[in-house]
Amino acid sequence: MASQKHLDLLSSGKTLWNKWREEYADVQALEPDLHEADLREADLHGVDLHGADLTEANLQGANLREADLREADLRNANLRNADLSDANLLGAHLRWADLRNATLCRSNLKLADLSKADLRGADLDGAIVIKAIFDEALFSKTEPGGADPDKFGRHETEIIEVKV
Fold it and tell me: pLDDT above 90 covers what percent of the chain?
C-alpha cells in the first residue's frame, strides 16, 4: 500500500511535492512509496517521481506530461489513456504495464524495460527508444498513429532488444 504521507504530499500539489523531493533528497532513505496508489485522472504534469515505487498504481487517464519518471518502478501499473508526452522515463521499469492508448510522444524511453507491456493503440511518435527493451510487448499496427515497432527507426537509429 502507498504511504499516506507520500499521497498527502503529492495531493498538495506539484510545487510542494517537488520542493520536498529537492530539499530532502539526501535523507530520503526509500523512494517515494506510491505502490497501488489510485491516481487515476490525476494532474501530475511536471511532477518529480524519479525512483518512485508506482508498482500496480492506477494512473489511468493521468496527466504525466513532462513528469520525471527516471528509474521509476511502474511494473503492472495501469497507464491506459495516460498522457506521458515529453516525460522522462529513462531506465523506468514498465514490465507488464498497461499502456493501451497512452500518449508517449517525445518521451524518453532510453533503457526502459517495457517487457510484456501492452502498447496497443499507444502513440510513440518521436519517442526516444534507444536500448529500450520491448521483449514480448503487445503492439497494434492497424490503428493510425499507433505504436508500430517498424516506425521506431525513423526517430532513433540504435534499438536493442526489440522483440515482439
Answer: 74
